[in-house]
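Q: LRR receptor-like serine/threonine-protein kinase GSO1, please. Structure only.
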Amino acid sequence: MGQPFHYQYLDVDFGESLQAMTKSLNLVYDSDNLYYWKSIDLSNNTLTGEIPQNMVFLAGLLNLNLSHNHLIGEIPFEIGNMTSLESLDLQMNNLSGSIPQSMSLLYSLEVLNLSYNNLSGSIPTGHQLQSLDDPSIYSGNPNLCGPPLKMSCESPKRDDNNDSNSKHAGDKDNWFYLFIEFGFVVGFLVVFFILLLKRNWRYDYFRMIDSGFNWLHVLTALALERWSAERA
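A: Structure for LRR receptor-like serine/threonine-protein kinase GSO1:
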């Protein structure tokens, strides 16, 4: 379980207008359009813990700014449910993990900033995210890869474990063949010295070889004679 998301409620009388940071701009909402303003701006506080998972059900939210805090954990997996979101600013936190693929469903998103966190993996693809092609919105996350960043996700990472296993397997094969060659040499020398020292065995051995050659010669001659007869 992650740490709870801590924040304080602040009761403020906005009066006839309100100045708010949205889409990376300081905008002023007057009394006529303040009713339609749907935004959460908790930036530049000391918020800790993880982003609440329930926040993804705020489907009508237009602006979410949680930047410059101490948030940890991952970006909610179902953040794509916030379909009305036009501006999302999560920069300068300690968020980790990958960027959810569902973020590509934020078709209204015009401003995004995920810089200076600990995010990793490939940046999701999608029509709306591809239009946000400024690499600076992902800067400060050295383990991110894919467009619009220059770091490619296709470069294979060296697996030291596989290399080590392959090396051990190769060593075993080398020892196996070495033992086979050693056994062949030893066997040959044993037979050679036995034949060298035992005259009777040596005669019998060569007599057996001669008989073998004679038998092979007879078989070859008979085969050739049969083959010639069939051809005729």
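A: Brief note, in case it's useful. The first helix runs from residue 127 to 131.
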